[in-house]
Amino acid sequence: MKFNTKTIHGGQHNVDPAYGSVMPPIYQTSTYSQSTPGGHKGFEYSRTRNPTRTALQNSLASIENGKHGLAFGSGLAAIDAVIKLLQPGDEVVSTNDLYGGSYRLFKNVFEKFGIKFHFIGMQDASKIENYINENTKLLWVETPTNPMMNIIDIKACSSIAKSHNILLAVDNTFATPYLQQPLDLGADIVMHSATKYLGGHSDVVMGALIVNDNELAEKLYFIQNASGAVCGPQDSFLVLRGIKTLHIRIQRHCENGKAIANFLTSHPKIEKVYWPGLPTHPNHDIAKQQMNDFGGMISFTTKGNLMADAIKVVENLKIFTLAESLGGVESLAGHPASMTQASIPKEEREKTGVVDSLIRLSVGIEDVDDLIEDLKQALG
Ligand code: P1T
Predict the structure, then answer these.
(1) Which residue's C-alpha comes closest to atom 21 of ligand 1?
(2) pLDDT at residue 14 is higher than 80
(3) Would residue 301 be called left, alpha or beta, if left means φ above 0 and alpha means ψ between -120 and 50 degrees?
């Protein structure tokens, strides 16, 4: 199947053998009857397995070209499961410009358990090897990065990871498999905040992992069940429904993203625009190689770099909603320094470009003329 068919049918054969319902039922049950101890139909307790979650997990595996999909109660719960593959004393080399909550989980939770994280700029992949030693077990890559929209070369990271026999995990939340398929580029683990584009309607919090290797999948299924950070059947249904329109939504996000990036680039009050589709973007060539298009996430700074100016702009917006999160059909705007990246110390965040005047847009799929008018009046 091609991608646009997989979003609808991938992994969905024989979903409801009982009545043939086209969508899988929401199996709102915690447990399943057994005729004799162990005599069940493949499902015994919903932390371990639930048929609606299984339908979603099969869809996730299909759209990312993987063999195994796992769904969790949030994106951070999915990342938490990956880090639990490690032991005290192990080291991780991670992107330095990444979602603030991922940074907080690494730094404030897992460092306490003796895991060491190196946060580095990965746009020049040749620098990564300087931070790898015999304790390194994982490369954690987010691309495009949140919120600076840096692009990291997944293939180059994969060859480094393979030569040192370490795992490569890619947070594919911003790109989605419509734009980029990390497993095909050599990653071992793909991670999603399914809260975002996969769900697509700002009505659910969920995380996902997709892998190819059977042994790695077994370890992750064990952690999923043992730690128990699973999502419920209702949420599984919602994300499965979201995935069915992923391809047409992202197509429009990309079209609108391009028009807005071009509008912002020519606006006299704007200092810098960060969108990987702009030929002036420093990693535009890598983006062109590993992505099919450039998405609807855009960051920009206002001239003078004043926090008050940026806050005024986001407060003035009428169609864009000032809110955390991204990837829904509706356009959102955020102020990373005080919102998504607030858990990163100011000196650290400024090193990666998250300055006080930075504004992040999640461009939705409304009429683009209305969105541009809204930005015009807010900047005015
Ligand atoms: O919110 P949650 O579903 O737990 O996912 C965490 C996460 C992981 N990775 C990336 C790239 C993310 O963007 C997120 C969540 N991000 C936001 C809430 C945000 O507004 O950026």
Answers:
(1) 325
(2) no
(3) beta
| CB of 327 sitting under 6 A from ligand 1 | no
CATH class of 3-243: alpha beta
DSSP state of 232: P
Q: Give ∠ CA 95-97-100 in degrees, rounded to 5.
A: 105
- Whether ligand 1 lies within 6 angstroms of the CB of 235 is answered as no
pTM: 0.98
Ligand 1 atom closest to the Cα of residue 102 is 8
CATH number of 247-379: 3.90.1150.10
> How far are the Cα atoms of 84, 101, 174, 175, 365 from residue 145, in angstroms, in the given order?
23, 13, 8, 10, 21
What is the distance, to the nearest Å, from the Cα of residue 172 to the centroid of all Cα atoms in its chain? Answer: 4
Tell whether ligand 1 has an atom less than 6 A from the beta carbon of residue 193: yes
Q: How far is the CA of 115 from the centre of ligand 1 (A)?
A: 22
Convert the pLDDT of each residue in 294-303 to its tens digit: 999 999 999 9
Active site residues: 47, 99, 171, 196
